[in-house]
Amino acid sequence: MPICPDRPRPFTCAICGQHRDYRWPGPVQTWPVEPVCRWCEQTFGSVVPAPGTFRDRRLLSVFSALAEALHTEAAHQHYRRHYGTA
User: Fold this and answer.
1) What is the pLDDT of residue 70?
2) Chunked in runs of 10, what are the mean pLDDT values of the chain (86 residues)?
3) Are 69 and 15 in contact (CB under 8 A)?
4) pLDDT of residue 45
5) Domain residue limits at 65
6) pLDDT at position 68
7) pLDDT of residue 69
8) Does some domain include residue 49?
9) Which one of 33, 43, 63, 70 has the fewest CB atoms closer than 10 angstroms to its CB?
């Protein structure tokens, strides 16, 4: 039985679109939860749990980040239609 769990699989973030390949992922508590990378989770998510909290709080943070990203993109589309682009 291995001492450390397997590192997270590489994936493409649903918000920023960058391919995330974690060679040195750090503590297990800070590993990304697919489909959102850790940076987008902390930037867009309104629920920012401390490291080591339960996984359900991390999932709430991921859902919050996805909802905020959708809201931001909808606002960009709405105001771009009314005011044009810079």
Assistant:
1) 94
2) 69 90 75 86 76 75 91 90 70
3) yes
4) 83
5) 31-86
6) 93
7) 92
8) yes
9) 70
Sequence-distant (6+) residues with CB within 8 A of 37 are 13, 15, 16, 18, 20
48 and 68 Cβ atoms separated by less than 8 Å:
no
Q: pTM for the full model?
A: 0.72
SS3 86: coil
* Residue 20 in domain: no
Q: At 5, list the tokens.
A: 């769990």
User: What is the predicted pLDDT for the residue at 48?
Assistant: 59
Residue 3 lies in a domain: no
DSSP states along 6-67: PPPPPEE-TTT--EE--SS--SGGG--BTTB-HHHHHHH-S--PPTT--HHHHHHHHHHHHH
Asked if the structure places residue 59 within a domain, the reply is yes
Give ∠ CA 10-72-12 in degrees, rounded to 5.
10
The C-alpha angle with vertex 22 and arms to 46 and 7, in degrees rounded to 5, equals: 100
